Amino acid sequence: MFRAICTKFVFDAYKKQELPHFNDINEALEYIEEYYKSVEEIVSPNLISWLRQMPNDMNIGTVNFHFYKCLAFEAEESEESMQELEYIYVFEQLNDVCVLFYISWLITDCTIKEALEKVSGTTCSNVPSDDLLSIKEYFQPIIVDFMSDNYK
Q1: If we measure between CA atoms, which residue out of 86, 96, 80 comes closest to residue 140?
Q2: Domain range for residue 48?
Q3: Do 81 and 74 touch, CB atoms closer than 8 A?
Q4: Considering the chain, what is the average pLDDT of its residues?
Q5: pLDDT tens per residue, range 50-75
Q6: How many domains does the chain have?
């Protein structure tokens, strides 16, 4: 949840046009990394309180704390649940990184379509809505393919 909330803060800053524009992707990536670190300092001391107040049906992007909390309890007893939890952890981390790279490309004045293609390495035939859930869902099939080849 920590990463999902941090990524949401960065995405929200992008949507509110609070992020500067860059001419160079490396400068944009460096900026987003530093911005993310500053967000971590805000989220970290508040995380437990926020999680306690979070309704069970609330998602942050594609992440639902209640689901993960239940799965974590199951993982204490079940190797299969532990493997599922580990897989989801890696999957969601990759999804958040894709979103951060996506934002980095957008603040270099790429279009949404260009940013999606640069991050995914694929042709984007259907541009999703520019909201966090839709962007994360766009990257998910690509991450599934990657993980099926690289995650054991």
Answers
A1: 96
A2: 2-150
A3: yes
A4: 93
A5: 888 888 888 787 888 888 888 888 88
A6: 1
